[in-house]
Amino acid sequence: MNTMIQLEGVDKMYRTDRIETVALSSINLEVKPGEFVSVMGPSGCGKSTLLNVIGLLDEPSKGRVQLNGTPVSSYRDAALAKMRNKEIGFIFQTFHLIPDLSVADNVEIPLLYRRMAGAERRRLALAALDRLGLTSRIHHFPSQLSGGQQQRVAIARAIVGCPRILLADEPTGNLDSQMGDEIMHILHSLQKDSGTTIVMVTHDPRLADQTQRIVRLFDGRQVQ
Amino acid sequence: MLRSYLKLAWRVLWRRRFFTAISLFGISLTLVVLMVATALLDHTFAPMAPEVRQARTLVIFNATMTGPRSTWRDGAGFQLVDRYARNLANVERVAMISFPEDVFSYPGSTRVQSSLRRADAEYWRILDFDFLEGGPFADQDVRNGSRVAVINAATRDRFFGGAAAVGRWIDADGLRFRVVGVTANVSASRPVSTGDIFVPYTTAKTDAYKTRLLGSFMGILLGRSPADLPGIKAEFASRVAAAPMPDKDYEHLYAAAETYFESVAADTFGQRNDDTTRAERLWIAIVGAALLFLLLPTVNLVNLNVSRIMERASEIGVRKAFGASTGTLVTQFMVENVMLTLLGGVIGFVLSAVVLKAITAAELIEHARLAINARVFLYGLGLSLVFGLLSGVYPAWRMARLNPVAALKGVGR
């Protein structure tokens, strides 16, 4: 298999009654298995939209998306949900942890949507938290953690189901540089140790330079 | 997964305590009204002592004669029961009892009002009264017109201050009766078995009642099994249809052997021998009224739920991103809502028990002992679930269909 993510001629347009906004235009992208790619560009250039299209959260207006060799043939809710659950882990800038759930319960979320016994879910969640150095925090709630710790919990949640693809939307955007470096270090070790394919949106050229390839967008078009 | 949903639901409800309290107040108040109404209906129509053989019992409550110029509607007459209800196929017993009539007595220097009923001896065999003293009067007493009486506990209290009454005498309707038995009180909502003083029908001051098709009696028919009741109804109806009219002013006689529920349905939707759907119509009317009553609080709860779930748009986005389908999310929010309404149901049960106890204590219905029994509990549980599902489906469906990208941005619409 040569590509983990393949986009061919992808357009994304948002239509309202009066205007049509082009968010992505003629995007062709190939990401190899185990590759760490960053996506850069000014605000509003379509970085997050690209990530949403790759993550099957948004349907392209035109073009083809293929993940792990499987073309996304149907954008039916149940089929997408299954594919997201199996193949993709998300890391968001604002962490998006559920405030009413403990750290361990938050990490278990992707496993809830698989046929898996509760004890097995808990075992895998604890293993993921251990990997991120959060064993002592499993019973805490998100509000009791620092930003860096919250993002580590979000990474544990993203990797607990062993997805082949990690999509990170400005994962260090809400953290100071030291915390940011720590998160980047974790992402690099995930890529090296587990061979996870990572696509990261960032504004920070310093972080982008640490990745294997930079994809640049401008006004919805791929410029590099 | 269910455990995880319940855990989360509990935390969400606990975190939003004010909202939860408002919701629970609305839910429990609604359920109290419905459960009290259910308890009252159950108390009126469901089988309970002494009407323990209700499943195979039919009653001829009333009759109507119609002619070109007049209509006469009254209770069943002695002759209607005696001539047309006896020797029906699969009828084990036939009894007669008059509708309650108010009589006055003057024990000591006080004036006591009682409801007097005239019965035959079969009445005591069809109904299973709880005798606190003595027993019922016998066939021989009825044949001889013996002045004997069965009274209820309340009458014993009024006449004898609660002391033993069997063998003692009471005055009623201008006659003296020897008490032969004392029964437990029966609620005034049970027209077949309620009453203060029961005497043999042959103690009436005149025999005029014996010639009447319409009058002040009800006939009670005990079938051999519940399955026999439709056949009994049909045979009685055909006999009545062929009955000769006693008076040239009238051309048709209508009377039906029916359950009390069917009789109420007939009173509500019209008395006709050939109309078999009126009981179903009464059922639909009762259920419809309950649903109509549920409508306003349901709409209210739907609005509260939508705003509550709207705040959790980002959670919906996260769950969708990690593999939750719309169906799974609908289930999750339904579980939360059903849990909330069941919690409201529990409070509703407690409050209903208090209200029913207060109604009982206030004797709003004479001798009624209203309580939440297993049947009312099951109806209440059913109502809570229906309420939970009705008020949860729309918000859950609407929120679960949110676009995940919009949801992650916290846009709940």
Fill in the keyword field for this structure.
heterodimer; A: 224 residues; alpha/beta; Rossmann fold; B: 413 residues; alpha+beta; 2 domains; seven-stranded mixed beta sheet; four-stranded antiparallel beta sheet; 49% helix; 18% strand
Detailed description of the structure:
The complex is a heterodimer of chains A (224) and B (413). Chain A has 224 residues and is α/β, with parallel strands linked by helices. Chain A has one domain: Rossmann fold (3-Layer(aba) Sandwich). Chain A is 35% helix and 26% strand. The longest helix of chain A has 18 residues, at 177-194. Chain B is of the alpha+beta class. Chain B folds into 2 domains: 2-47 and 280-408, no CATH class; 62-257, no CATH class. Chain B has 13 helices and 14 strands. Chain B has helices at 2-15, 17-45, 78-84, 122-126, 139-144, 153-160, 229-241, 260-269, 278-310, 313-321, 326-361, 374-400, 404-408; strands spanning 57-60, 62-66, 71-76, 91-98, 101-105, 112-119, 131-134, 148-152, 169-172, 175-183, 197-200, 214-215, 217-223, 252-255. In chain B, strands 5, 6, 7, 8, 9, 10 and 11 form a 7-stranded mixed β-sheet that branches. In chain B, helix 2 packs antiparallel against helix 9, helix 2 packs antiparallel against helix 12 and helix 8 packs across helix 9 (278-310). The model of chain B has no long low-confidence stretch (mean pLDDT 89).
Termini separation of chain A (Å)?
Answer: 24 Å
Instruction: Please outline the major beta sheet of chain A.
Output: 6 strands, mixed
CATH topology of chain A: Rossmann fold
Beta-strand residue fraction of chain B:
15-25%
What is the share of helical residues of chain B?
A: 40-55%
Radius of gyration of chain A, in angstroms, nearest whole number? 17 Å
Strands of chain B, total number: 14
